[in-house]
Amino acid sequence: MKIRAKKSLGQNFLIDKNIIKKIINVGNILSNSSVLEIGAGTGNLTEYILKKKPKKIFVIEKDENLVIKIKQRFKEKINIINKDVLKVEENTICSDKLIVFGNLPYNISTQILSKWIVNDCQNIWYEKYIFMFQKEVADRILAKKDTKNYGRLSILTNWKLDVKKMFNINSSCFLPKPNIQSTLLMFTPKKSFLKLKNSKNLEIITRTFFNQRRKKIKKPLNQLFKNSNKITKKLKLDVNLRPQNLAPEIYYEIAKEYEKLRN
User: What's the burial of 250, exposed, middle or buried (CB within 10 Å: 0-12/13-18/19+)?
Assistant: First the structure.
């Protein structure tokens, strides 16, 4: 069966063996490791995961034609989950903490990351994420305050995860060749972070601020809080600053205050 990449699923198959080996090495897979791969495609990365002889391998693949192909290729060596990754309850996949690899579809990459951060429960189900993003998206994830790329994605990611840029990947490493560069990032869970009762409150806060990122923060604070002066004093905020001037930790504190009002 000849497999064609589906544009509707954002498919670009990684074909460069040297890059595949580099990605696998980032994972540091051991014999007692359990591994999850998002979007196995034709199984090029899967093959090199298997060479590391991990304890278990799980693969999430939505495309039924690709599922047939990787079943034929790997037989019983892998556990295939034929579902949309956004509909998988990730903490039910395995009782072990998983090393998660993903050449994420560009059209839903931020949705996947955001879903896992927001849904993350007290029992962390993963050891690390090793994800490939469109370089432009990776730049937004890595962005620091006071820069143009800084925004909701970097604040949400840095809440629960430590992020490290590993390397850029040229478009020629894929088939079909995309029009953009990619970046590999590694995410590991933070040992401690400010607990919120509902993660969606942080999304509400960041959306309110960054929907008007050129405005001074006084306006979104007034939208969120009836007595915004009280919050301003408590958190020692300068209302003349703009959203990109506030560190991520400030947004977590604002989200905490927002929750207190709703109790």
Answer: middle
